[in-house]
Specification:
There is one protein chain. This protein has a domain at 2-80: 434 Repressor (Amino-terminal Domain) (Orthogonal Bundle), CATH 1.10.260.40. The N and C termini lie far apart (67 Å). It is elongated and about 75 Å long. By secondary structure, it is α/β, with parallel strands linked by helices. The chain has helices at residues 2-12, 17-24, 28-35, 43-53, 76-80, 258-264, 276-284, and strands at 109-111, 129-131, 149-151, 159-161, 164-166, 169-171, 179-181, 184-186, 189-191, 199-201, 204-206, 224-226, 244-246, 273-274, 293-294. The strands form 3 sheets. The chain has a 7-stranded parallel beta sheet. Strands 1-2-3-6-9 form a 5-stranded parallel beta sheet, with no helix packed on it. Strands 4-7-10 form a 3-stranded parallel beta sheet, with no helix packed on it. The protein is 20% helix and 15% strand.
Length: 295
Amino acid sequence: MIGSKIAEARKQLNLSQAELAQRLFISPQAVGKWERGESIPDLITFNRLAKILGVDLNYFSQDFASASNIIQPETASSARMPEPNELVNFSGSNLPDSDFAGVTAHKRKFKGSALRGSDFSKADLSGSSFIASDLREANFNGANLTDCTFSALDLRDGTFNKTILTRTEFSKSSLDRVKFTDARLIDAKLTKADLKTTIFDNCVFEGVDFKYSDLSGVCFDGQTFNSVKFHNAALTGASFKGATLMNVSFRAQYALTNKYYRLLKTIHFDGAVMDKLTYAALKGVGVDLSGVSTI
């Protein structure tokens, strides 16, 4: 019933599903699902939808018969220039399993939001912040997360496949079983984060900072590291077999303690390739590099 009302009002304004989706900053597939009755908009989207279609919220109720009482549709020009903070601040929103796939949404704010299972695949979220929110099982595959902040979050079981992670910051968060595959992390920060069960597969790390993160047992085999810092990171049993390491630092922030010496000796570097300075720094603290070659 709601879907048919959305379709009726949309057609009265000669809007295509794609045009309506663009004004709502969502995918055309989401509008199609509404009109087929496969899903319904959340409350925030209902408010925005009513404004664009020029109807009262009561229009979507069962007792409101038709769209003949269209009030004043929002013009395309006003839709492109939302009021300050409109559709920018989603803090405190209850939006589990939401469809944000393919949207362009720069500098959005998600603080204290319920976003479990939401789909952000191929979305451009540049400059957005996710703070103290539930992002379990969220899909960021192919998304542009340039200059995004992820802080104090639960990101368990999230996926970042071929995701753009330039100057992206993850801090004080749980990344249990999060999968980073075929991703390029450039000048990104993963600090004070629990990464013990995080999966990194076929990734490239350039200028990445892992300061104070727990990387115990993490597998980095066969991956590329350039100008990466593992300062004061927990790396017990981590593996860099067959990896390429250029200008990579494993130093403690202040002084190397006996405990940190012992920690470094548990890291596996068999078959790795290193520049001579990285090799010398690790060799100097007693790390076994017998299976490592230099370039």
